[in-house]
Design brief:
The protein is mainly beta and about 100 residues long. It has one domain. It is about 5% helix and about 55% strand. The protein is globular and about 40 Å long.
Length: about 100
């Protein structure tokens, strides 16, 4: 799947589902998609901007950068993830699509 096809509609029905963050030489980290939010389209871009929020119980905060996430229906996709919070043992990450 290409980034041109990644729209908010692709993710709306994936809330509550898991994605596996895959890294070379490390076990996969399970992340749950917890929120899909439409963002205001200030630039009148062809694809309406949106935000994805993922949570995980992984140990340690991952730095913001590109990560490969695998989903059963979507396959392997690259996301720029930014850590945005920690509550107890739960870490929260955001990906924004403009």
């Amino acid at each position: 799947m290409t980034t041109e096809l990644l729209t908010i509609d692709v993710f709306n029905d994936k809330v509550g589902q898991t994605f596996a963050l895959e890294q070379p030489d490390a076990p996969a980290i399970t992340m749950t998609l917890t929120e899909v939010t439409a963002l205001r389209n200030y630039a009148n871009a062809p694809r309406a901007p949106f935000s994805l929020i993922f949570t995980t119980q992984a140990v340690g905060v991952l730095p913001q950068r590109m990560y490969d996430l695998r989903h059963a229906a979507l396959g392997l996709q690259s996301f720029f993830l930014v850590p945005i919070g920690k509550k107890g043992e739960t870490l929260t990450y955001q990906a924004i699509f403009n």
